[in-house]
Amino acid sequence: MSPRPSITPLVVIVTASLLPASLFRGKRGSFAGQTKELMQYRSILAGYTGQIDTTLGELGELSDALRRRDVDIDEAVERLASGEDELDAIADEMREMEAPEQLHALHLEYEANLERALRGIVTAERGCGLTRQRHRPPDDEEPLAYWKRGHANIVHARMRMQEVAEVLLAWEPGRPAEVSVHTRLRRDA
Questions:
Q1: CB within 8 A of 187, min separation 6: which ones?
Q2: Are 55 and 85 in contact (CB under 8 A)?
Q3: Which of 4, 6, 32, 129 is the most buried (most CB within 10 A)?
């Protein structure tokens, strides 16, 4: 009789060939899920960032016009209030968004800068409110200080939000998700 091969090496070979497929099957499914989540996040965020940038650009110009006293106060208050309401609604919606795990910190930074821009709008509105007080002279300098501060907050928050949004929208898994001078210089080089 010829010697029969042992079953043990056969079982080991079959198990070893099936093991990699079972290990990587879960990763493929989660990668596809992560990709879908990232694309969905990007499309929603792109809509919000475009709307936010446009609104902040208009309100930045308006607060600059207030500083130069080139706009009617009542018209400015109305435009500031409507812009604040619009951005406040977007901020509430953005708080409910779930960013991919690697982008949480940048998403929170974007939200924080949006809050900074909203504080700038409120500051500019406060300056407008000061001009409506009866005892204030028409050329009072205190509202000017509020408008300057509001303008600076709106413009600087908008600039930082543009940088953060650029990284959020272009980020690819495996790359660093950070916005710093170092990464900006490396990217632009």
A1: none
A2: no
A3: 129
> What are 39-94's pLDDT values in tens digits?
888 899 999 999 999 999 999 999 999 999 899 999 999 999 999 999 999 999 99
Strand segments, DSSP code E, in 82-184 are: none
- Closest residue by Cα to residue 67 from 8, 1, 25, 120: 120
Among 77, 89, 78, 79, residue whose Cα is nearest residue 52? 89
What is the sign of the dihedral through the CA atoms of 154, 159, 162 and 163? negative
Task: Count CB atoms within 10 A of the CB of residue 86.
Answer: 14
Contact indicator for 128, 80 with CB cutoff of 8 Å: yes
Quick one: angle between helices 7-68 and 73-96, nearest 10? 170
Distance CA 150, CA 139 (A): 19
> Cα dihedral angle (84, 87, 88, 93), rounded to 10 degrees?
170
Spatial neighbors of 131 by CB under 8 A, at least 6 apart, are 73, 140, 143
The CATH architecture that domain 45-188 belongs to is: Up-down Bundle (1.20)
